[in-house]
Amino acid sequence: MMKILLMGNPNVGKSVIFSRLTGVRVVSSNYPGTTVNYTSGFMKIDERKVEIIDVPGTYTLEPTCEAEKIAAEMLKTGDIVINVVDATNLERNLYLTLQLMEMKIPMIVALNLWDDTRHRGIEINLEKLRENLGVPVIPTSGLNGEGIKELVTHIPQAVPPPSQMRSRDERWSLIGSITDQVQQISHRHHRWFERLEDASVKPKTGIFIAAIVLTGSFMAIRFIGEFLINHLLDPLFHSLWLPVLMKLSTLMGKSGLAHDVVVGKLMNGEINFVESFGLLSSGLYVPFAMVLPYIISFYLILGILEDTGYLPRLAVLLDTTMHKIGLHGFAIIPALLGFGCSVPAVMATRVLESRRERFIAATLVCIAIPCASAQAMIFGLVGKYGGQYVALVYGTLLAVWIILGVILNHLLKGFSPELLIEIPPYRVPPWGTIIQKLWGRTRGFLLEAVPIILAAVLVINILFVLGIFDHIASFTAPVITGVLGLPEESVTAVIVGLLRKDAALGMLALSVMTAKQMVIGSVVLTMFFPCIATFVVLLRELGLKDFLKSASIMLVSSVAVGGILNAIL
Amino acid sequence: MVKSLNDLNSEESGVVSEIRGGQGLVNRLNALGIRTGKKITKISSMLLHGPVTIRIDRARVAIGFGMAAKIFVEVDKRT
Asked: Which domains does chain B have, with CATH numbers?
């Protein structure tokens, strides 16, 4: 099958064009490096099915990080290249265009963000650009779909470009002469808007803005999440689902093995959605009424932050601090993603330059950043004892993130490379994209997490009945009870933690009594090992050797931190 | 007058005159459009040896402190 590659600089809208062409929804944001892995989809051209590949963005074909390496390798497999070019930054984008032309692969240029050129006072002579490049040039606007049809009809006309190999300086001088001929820039400044854009990367105003943005985001996430729980999902479960379950419970005789697996154990003759732990009670309540609301609210706010273009500015602001833990500022983006789910967060470390950085960033995400599932449970369960305990959990994890980062930075050979990123212009978030992105991520949670949670509930019930946990519990008691001060049975929660954090924290609530134990349990469960999905991704991204290193750090540090908390609280 | 990017004041403009680094650095900066002969304007630098943000053509680029120290700029005369 014919393979068509979408290639271009980071953050020029390749993913948006990809979605337009294939109908496959992919995550796009307003910062360089959203696509770190290639995505493929299909479309029909003249009744022939072709494969379209969304290649990670790259500035040159001489790769400087993992994501760019993937891009350069992909190029060898393509039959046609659609080079997506940012029309508002023609000069810089043409460098990759010239390099691609030298590869002699049939090519067509999509001059994207075309609608932005007008109000930015940029005029581009399309005819002259076509003449100069010798390949079709189609103006497009991915966000509103302008020019996409034309792009498709021109794909069969892609021709191997007339080009010879050039040195770097020759390319730049050619670019200079092309832009002189085809582009006219009139200075139309939006002074106040530019000032606003710059304020977030100036020290004083920047810190102020960051404080507002981060506090605002946190409050919005809490507010929306709580609202969905208290006014929508919890009432739904109690008024609609509970009566059905109670009837079922009566039908099944209110007790017995089958009853406890399906409905859950009755507490004082009632179903408790958290503690009953049946497939149809906790198995549904935990994912839908406790975790889902926070997944929705977190990804809504993250989506808005991503699309406005604020995140790279935060990276600049935090760069100095991040260097202390062996990373540069851009590593804040994987960390923020980790508050949603560790899987995309670990993947996102691909934008970092060195293996050392990727190791530190991925390890820290897995250890010290609680994912949305874990957080929802921390708020739900620890929160019952009082807000100060929730703060204690978060404070401990933040301290671990910093201290462990500093230690790793000192122990690991090498140094942290420096920040070098493009800061995108602010953009009003396109609501359509935000809702699509939110839906894609929520759907991912429902499809991947819900079956695992149900399976976990089932397996736990069976193991309980068989009495297997009692054996494990007495075996692990020295650590669980001795060092961490948790009840023996909470080892079940630790084991479930290998599957899912939300189900594990739910288990913890069954055996744990005091606030102190709940705090220690939450911290240890968050830190000690990633869930099964993250485990797989981490192994793939780090390789076996580094993965084992990372996993031992998790084990040792979680027991150490749990032990310290037990001693001082 | 030639200054390193770190010594340039905020809102000061100039033309890149030299990048004192190896091919690797020159290549990475080039890819972002930063090369000898380009006009740039400094927007800001972060405290405590933080990154420098510059404006170049229609783009903004943030450059780590150590890298910025290797980029030299012929400062425009104040008009």
From this structure: 2-75 (2.30.30.90)
Task: Give me the DSSP letters along A129-155.
Answer: HHHHH-S-EEE-BTTTTBTHHHHHHHG
CA A209, A213, A215: angle at the middle one, nearest 5? 115
**How far is Cα A312 from Cα A213, in angstroms, rounded to an integer?**
13
Question: With an 8 Å Cβ cutoff, are A59 and B49 in contact?
Answer: no
Q: Read off the DSSP letter of residue B76.
A: P
Q: Which of the two residues, A448 and A284, has the higher pLDDT score?
A: A284
All residues of chain A having their beta carbon less than 8 Å from the beta carbon of residue B53 are 198, 201, 316, 423
Query: At A554, which amino acid appears?
Result: M
The domains of chain A, with CATH numbers, are 3-185 (3.40.50.300), 204-568 (no CATH)
pLDDT in tens, A401-420: 999 999 999 898 877 788 88
Are the C-beta atoms of residues A73 and A149 closer than 8 Å to each other? no
Q: Which residues in chain A have their CB less than 8 angstroms from residue B9's CB? A: none
Asked if A137 and A129 count as a contact pair (C-beta separation under 8 A), the reply is yes
What does the pLDDT look like over A464-510, one tens digit per residue? 778 777 787 778 888 888 788 888 778 888 888 877 788 888 888 87
Contact B46 A60 (CB under 8 A): no
Over the stretch A293-312, which tens digit does the pLDDT of each residue have? 888 988 888 888 888 888 88
Cβ within 8 Å, pair A201-B62: yes
* Contact check, Cβ <8 Å, A92/B33: yes
Give dist(CA A181, CA A243) in Å, integer.
Answer: 75
What are all long-range contacts of A553-558, with beta carbons under 8 Å and residues at least 24 apart? A553/A363, A553/A367, A553/A404, A553/A408, A554/A363, A554/A366, A554/A367, A554/A527, A554/A528, A554/A529, A554/A530, A555/A528, A555/A529, A557/A367, A557/A400, A557/A404, A557/A527, A558/A367, A558/A523, A558/A524, A558/A527, A558/A528, A558/A529
Strand bridging mode B39-45 / B52-56: antiparallel
Q: What is the distance between the alpha carbons of residues A124 and A118, in angstroms, rounded to a whole number?
A: 10
pTM: 0.82
Q: What is the pLDDT of residues A149-175, one digit of tens each?
A: 888 888 888 888 887 888 888 888 899
**Is A378 strand, coil or helix?**
helix
